[in-house]
Amino acid sequence: MGKFQARAVGKGDYDGIRKQIVEVLEQPGYDDGSAGPVLVRLAWHASGTFSLVEHNGGSNGAGMRFGKERDDPANAGLVHAIEFIMPIQAANPWITHADLWTLAGVTALEAMKGPKVPWRPGRTDYDDESHADDHRGNIGDRLPDGALGADHLRHVFGRMGYSDQEIVALSGAHNLGRCHADRSGFDGPWVVNPTRFSNQYFKLLSTRKWTPRKWDGPFQYETIVAGERLMMLPTDMALMEDPEFKKWVLIYAKDQKKFFEDFALAFGKLIELGVDRDDSGFSRLVNKAAREGKPLDKVGGGCPFASAIKQGKTELDKNPRESKL
Ligand code: HEM
Question: Model's pTM, two decimal places?
Answer without folding.
Answer: 0.90
